[in-house]
Design goal:
about 210 residues, alpha+beta, 4 helices, 8 strands
């Protein structure tokens, strides 16, 4: 015997099915315009001390002026390599120079030592240069144990730049700074200054010595 279903019930089921299909219709959803995200949803990238420019290949070259300092020349200029730069291979450049501050005519100069086209991790080469420069500094008027290196802004070429001080009995000390990026490593000795001042000057020097 067939089961009789009231017409009103069939009509209700048909209407419900039609509404369900309409709600799930992709074409109906596509017709609705996209809702733009609120302005507050935009998130800016965090600031970093490492510049994207550090990913490129750079070279070093002597500069007559670097960061406003004047390269020493003549009999009083550095004539040898006071710091072991590590293994030098074909294609690498070694830059050794000392620089006078504005108006300086005597006293200890700022000593710079750097290499480019470093075949190994440039951070390791910087550590090698750092150790040699610390030994050099301690034999030339600096005393005390080096402090822990602190990071500073590296400048437009990116990579990393760090400085450490050699404590002495007065408020100012000798400071050693070093930078490294993908292909270069360099260090400098700044007599009688502070790490923050040396870091700013070293970054300015780098802009003229690295290309």
């Amino acid at each position: 015997m067939p089961i009789l279903v009231p017409r009103t019930l069939l009509a209700t089921i048909a209407l419900s099915t039609t509404l369900t299909l309409t709600a799930c219709d992709p074409a109906a959803e596509a017709e609705a315009p996209p809702v733009p995200p609120p302005a507050s949803a935009a998130v800016s990238a965090p600031a970093s001390s490492t510049s994207p420019a550090g990913s490129g290949k750079h070279t070093l070259a002597e500069a007559a002026t670097a960061g406003g300092l004047t390269k020493a020349t003549g009999a009083g200029a550095v004539s040898d390599v006071p710091v072991d730069p590590g293994e030098m291979r074909d294609g690498m450049h070694l830059v050794v120079a000392d620089y006078n501050r504005a108006g300086q005519t005597s006293g200890r100069r700022i000593l710079f030592v750097g290499v480019d086209s470093v075949p190994e991790d440039p951070n390791k080469r910087r550590e090698h240069l750092w150790r040699g420069l610390i030994d050099y500094a301690l034999q030339n008027g600096s005393t005390g144990t080096p402090s822990t290196a602190k990071p500073y802004q590296p400048g437009p070429f990116g990579g990393s730049l760090e400085c450490l001080s050699l404590p002495e009995s007065t408020s100012t000390t000798d400071v050693i700074c070093g930078w490294s990026d993908t292909t270069t490593a360099a260090v400098a000795l700044f007599p009688r200054t502070t790490p923050a001042d040396a870091a700013r000057l070293f970054a300015a020097m780098r802009a003229d010595l690295e290309h």
